[in-house]
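dumping this here before i forget
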Amino acid sequence: MKQTSKTALGGIVSALSVTLMLLTAVIPFMTYAIPLLSGALLILMVIEINKKWAFFVYAAVSLLSVFVVPDKEAATFYIAFFGYYPIIKSSLEKHLPIVVEWLVKLAVFNAAVTGAYFVSVKLLGIPFEDMQELGKYGIPFVLALANFTFVMYDIMLTKLVTLYLRKFRKTFKRIFK
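structure:
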């Protein structure tokens, strides 16, 4: 792929990701789903160019999200996990046995979620009292639900990559030569 095509693709993916992130202002109940979708767009960068370019797009979207996205919690989750996970996913799956692979993935996810909530509560001032309404088992329940959702997300990313490679890559290659 030519340098100009790489730059154009990076710009398109960045613009689509930031546009999706801006939708959190219009659709506020999508605080977690929209960063997930924005991050999934980076799969295209990883497959068609390389991880280095994907990290540049991630950095650009992260920086723009901090400044222009009104939902700072969504921006935090994009930066903390959903933006870089599609980039590192293939590296986590290459050389590890399946059980170790999943343990590493879950550890990365839980560290990111814990860090994102710490940043959200301590630095951004997002109230944490909502969790207290669920009782003493609220936090473990929400964390278990988040882990289940992460496993589904990981499986969805794998299926998305397979779909792209089988159905859409030829069309993409014709457009971006």
